[in-house]
Amino acid sequence: MTNRLAVERVTISGPAGSLEAIVEDPGAAGARYALVCHPHPLYGGTMENKVVTTVARALREAGMPTLRFNFRGVGNSAGVFDAGIGETADADAAACWCAARWPARQPVIAGFSFGAYVALRLVQQRRAAHLITIAPPVVDFDFSGMAAPSCPWLVVQGDADEVVDPQSVITWVNRLEPRPQLIVMPGVGHFFHGRLHELRDAVIDAIRSD
Length: 210
Fold this sequence. Notes:
By secondary structure, this protein is of the alpha/beta class.
């Protein structure tokens, strides 16, 4: 018998007001849940972004419930853009909600682009079972003061990314200790057009190899 996916739209109390979110639960037993952060709010980033939904789907296929949410000022979420600081507080509020919903599970924290920056900021203050950062914008935001977490960490970067400089990401990763797992996808742009299936497979493989 296959598990039936339960989809639920929820409202989370955030530091700047309510946050809209979507919970998708495959109903499988397990020790983890996933929180997925979306790209830059001022450039059209939402929880419906194709990379975000692909990562969330991969994590559900790996057996865990997922929560995607809109940062402050996006969709029906209250507030205004706060350059990653307020958005980290939003992500922490979402993680608190998840911890209450699934108290026996540990979080997998994931993010794409700006969401990768927020995800790494979040794990500076909240223990995670796994961190997944897709195309982290290491030039546009200050990653310098953030420590590499002790949990397993996957970084995925396209080498044809037209938004995030691939070499800057590679150089940054190589300086980290402990060093995360880095997957550089040849010929892949920022939004993984035509290559989302490869991103999905990379996420599933990383989670299952913990």
